[in-house]
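Bug report

Summary: structure tokens for Quinol monooxygenase differ between web form and batch submission.
Environment: batch mode, default settings.
Steps: 1) Submit the sequence below via batch. 2) Compare with the web form result.

Sequence submitted:
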Amino acid sequence: MATVSRYGKMVAHEGRGADLARLLLGAADALADDPGCELYLVNRQADAPDTIWVTELWRSQEDLDAALARIRGSEEVSAAMALVRDAEMVELDLLGGKGLDHAHPAPTS
């Protein structure tokens, strides 16, 4: 199984960054018991308080897809998206680093 690593960037409507962050922190709490979600960090951009970044690490694409299917169309997602002016998702290739367990070896090529 290949891990899935990604960054999400959401820019809230002016003055709504704290509200968006609160909803995303609730999503993080909801993922606490999901073994497929290995990391879900919510960050506010220091020089732009309405810009919220989410750092995600999933055990597999299947785990991510299952989590997305569970929340698709939910009131929580609708509430969060109503606050978002602009969003983008950046898919990453995880190479390694501090904090990773041995289940995520660095690629050999």
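Above is the batch result. After comparison, the two runs are identical; trailing whitespace caused the diff. Strands lie at 4-12, 37-45, 48-58, 84-92. The longest strand covers residues 48-58.
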